[in-house]
């Protein structure tokens, strides 16, 4: 019951934010979510001195793909310079510096892109992406429970099955192709390919975070959300899926 209630509350908050908040308010909310998720990520990977990284995540999320890609390129160049300084003169190991370097691009950029989707396509388009991820995740869970026999990635997430992944692919792709044709006003075939890409990337995002947690020996990224774990646990699939959807809505790279 706790999981259900908190899930409904999260869905209502997300719906209200996407539908009613102005773009600047949505950008601020995305940045706050990015900082919370990044804090959990940095704890998982055991990074030290997290405050400067969280500031960078906030900045990257705020200015990333809005209004254009030059911001991302500039931030990436600055990020590489900062990485070199940490490793060469900051007495930070390559492993730790690399783990910290990943945070803005793993979390900040995709959430910035999510707001950019809203700016370009409006709330319906943003909800279309979120709904596709939710439909795929739900289909994976229930298909896996009913028909799951063969593990998808036993060393990373033993409960995930190939049958569940196939269910997510089928229902997520169909949802994007059918519902997306009304929201995005595009042909069914490109939308089906988009849906397929979103589902595959979402599964990869889920497994990526599961791999991080398994390597650190923890079950959830945090206990912030009752019954659901942490913020990163809730958005792991979205982080990998958003860039592909953003490029589609924007009209290509």
Which key phrases capture this entry?
253 residues, 8 helices, two-stranded antiparallel sheet, 79% helix, mainly alpha
Helix content: over 70%
Average pLDDT, to the nearest integer?
A: 87
As a percent range, the share of strand residues is under 5%
Strand order of the largest sheet: 1-2
Shape: globular
- Show unreliable segments: none
Distance between the termini: 43 Å
Task: Report the total helices.
Answer: 8
Q: Rg, please?
A: 18 Å
**Structural class from helices and strands?**
mainly alpha
Number of strands: 2
What letter string, H or E per element, gives the SSE order? HHHHHEEHHH
Number of domains: 1
The main β sheet shows up as:
2 strands, antiparallel
Tell me what the structure shows.
The protein has 253 residues and is mainly alpha-helical. It has one domain (2-250). The protein has helices at 2-20, 23-45, 50-63, 70-89, 94-147, 162-183, 188-216, 231-250, and strands at 151-153, 157-161. Strands 1-2 form a two-stranded antiparallel sheet. The chain is globular. The protein starts with a helix and ends with a helix.
